[in-house]
Specification:
Shape: elongated
Structural class: mainly alpha
Order of helices and strands: HHH
């Protein structure tokens, strides 16, 4: 039974580390604040969730697991709220998503002279 818990723990830790790595690369490579915020949100939710679950498998049924669950609940509430606050502030200050040149959607306040 202990070996099964170790295998589950390592699977969660490796997959969670993969999500954190991909999210970190996404934060560096994405073009604007909205897509960067999405990459950071994926890192916080999936990466941290899987890493904490892997640590819970290692800790067993102890007080450490209770503390890890409280950290997980805290992250699941604060991460989406902070991402929303960041994106809302960026939008309220006039920062619009970066669009491709051939996109039919135009940023607010920009016209192409055909109107």
């Amino acid at each position: 039974m202990e070996q099964v818990l170790d295998i589950l723990s390592w699977i969660c830790l490796i997959v969670g580390s993969f999500f954190v790595l991909v999210g970190g690369i996404g934060v560096l490579r994405m073009p604007d604040v909205y897509t960067r915020s999405h990459a950071a949100g994926i890192t916080d939710t999936m990466g941290a969730l899987l890493i904490l679950v892997g640590l819970m498998f290692q800790a067993g049924l102890t007080l450490i697991t209770v503390k890890l669950v409280m950290i997980l609940i805290f992250l699941l509430f604060t991460s989406p709220a902070s991402s929303h606050a960041l994106n809302h502030t960026a939008w309220a200050n006039g920062l619009r998503p970066k669009l491709e040149d051939d996109s039919p959607i135009k940023p607010l306040g920009k016209t192409d002279g055909r109107e």
